[in-house]
Design a protein that fits this description.
- By secondary structure, the protein is an alpha/beta fold.
- Helices cover about 45% and strands about 15% of the residues.
- The protein is built from 13 helices and 13 strands.
- Helix 3 runs parallel beside helix 5, helix 5 runs parallel beside helix 6 and helix 7 runs parallel beside helix 9.
- The mean pLDDT is about 95.
- The structure holds nicotinamide-adenine-dinucleotide and 2'deoxy-thymidine-5'-diphospho-alpha-D-glucose.
């Protein structure tokens, strides 16, 4: 198989490259990424030494560039991880989210149609379903839950999903969609909750917890997400949508305390800050469909995955310290400067 992985220098895209290289010894992968602030080529160092992997710096919204790549390579599977992915940034500046997440998806699907790619897979998110109340723990997102978005990020992802469904119906594009819950693991950019809290704890800096810290997320180890995407993208389930999650709901504050405890740091570092605008209260995925249809189930328990993750950040300080000391620092000031005063 020859696979195009877009967003390959980002958190989940890079983990997917390593997952596929390890799992499918005869596959070749092309990684396409425009290297935004969230893309880090250093993450792909090991993959770049593998002759089965090739990296192309390019923008998924650049139609000419994308078509030239599709013409040159004959892809069997296109997996679109490339996106603007951070909710807080989408609240500050929605435009680039609409461009990359919606128009980029259109360009990739048009190229897939033009060059007859047998499978297009869209990596989406549980955020397209909006949120769930805290007082109804039995309510979970199923694939039938109405789309109901809260942030410019989730609205852009939902728009892309609807476009994929339109291409499936109108143009018979052989496509699938997956909607996953919050991922954690190695190589996550330290602006997201878990790596940010690890990095700040290690630097004895305040840990900015939004609101009361009682919002709930449903955490999945990144390899389990990659395994699910790999299975769906090779399945015969054209036209289907699959939720991916591991029944692992946790309050933000409990995650933060767990990280502090593991690192032996004091809870006095916790600093409650102004809440995120439109902050979704709770996400919870029902993964029954993917388990029934494709036999997928998560393999990494949170207790193990979070230790693996914290240990990875301890052992790979240079990876995230370079990020924290660079452009990210300016963004950090912009985002938290006022909130911490
Ligand atoms: P990320 O921000 O870490 O990585 C995104 C990558 O896309 C970066 O390498 C970036 O350079 C690249 N990119 C951005 N704009 C591009 C463009 N125009 N052209 C080419 N490349 C571009 O994101 P992530 O957390 O790895 O998320 C990957 C995908 O998974 C996204 O589609 C996201 O919506 C989805 N998702 C993420 C999570 C999560 O918890 N992180 C959960 C569910 C779904
Ligand atoms: O659910 C899937 C989504 O998970 C993905 O689609 C997104 O790409 C991904 O970024 C993630 O979105 P969240 O908004 O849930 O993730 P984030 O890490 O930004 O925040 C997790 C929770 O922690 C959320 O309730 C906000 C809170 N938070 C976050 C940060 C960065 C804080 O309390 N403090 C912080 O500094």
């Amino acid at each position: 198989m020859k696979i195009l992985v877009t967003g390959a220098a980002g958190f989940i895209g890079a983990n997917h490259v390593y997952y596929v290289l390890g799992k499918h010894k005869d596959d070749e992968i092309v990684g396409l990424d425009s290297l935004t602030y969230a893309g880090n080529l250093e993450t792909l160092d090991a993959a770049l030494k593998d002759p089965r992997f090739r990296f192309v710096k390019g923008d998924i919204t650049d139609r000419a560039e994308v078509e030239a790549l599709f013409e040159q390579e004959k892809f069997d599977i296109v997996i679109n991880f490339a996106a603007e992915s951070h909710v807080d940034r989408s609240i500050e500046d929605p435009g680039v989210f609409l461009r990359t997440n919606i128009l980029g998806t259109q360009v990739l699907m048009d190229a897939s149609r033009k060059f007859g790619v047998p499978r297009y897979h869209q990596v989406s998110t549980d955020e397209v379903y909006g949120d769930l109340p805290l007082d109804k723990p039995d309510l979970l997102f199923t694939e039938q839950t109405p789309i109901h978005t809260s942030s410019p990020y989730s609205a852009s992802k939902a728009a892309a999903d609807l476009l994929v469904q339109a291409y499936i119906r109108t143009f018979k594009l052989p496509a699938t969609i997956s909607r996953c819950s919050n991922n954690y693991g190695p190589y996550q950019f330290p602006e997201k909750l878990i790596p940010l809290m690890i990095a700040n704890s290690l630097a004895d800096k305040p840990l900015p917890v939004y609101g009361e810290g009682i919002n709930v997320r449903d955490w999945l180890y990144v390899d389990d997400h990659c395994k699910a995407v790999d299975i769906i993208s090779r399945s015969d389930k054209v036209g289907e949508v699959y939720n991916i999650g591991g029944h692992n709901e946790m309050r933000n504050i409990d995650i933060v305390k767990l990280i502090l405890g593991y690192l032996g740091k004091p809870e006095s570092l916790i600093t409650y800050v102004t809440d995120r605008k439109g902050h979704d209260m709770r996400y919870a995925i029902d993964p029954a469909k993917i388990t029934a249809d494709l036999g997928w189930a998560p393999e990494t328990m949170f207790a193990d995955g979070i230790k693996l993750t914290i240990d990875w950040y301890l052992e790979n300080k240079s990876w995230w310290e370079r990020i924290v000391s660079g452009e990210y620092q300016e963004y950090y000031e912009e985002m938290y400067g006022d909130r911490l005063k």
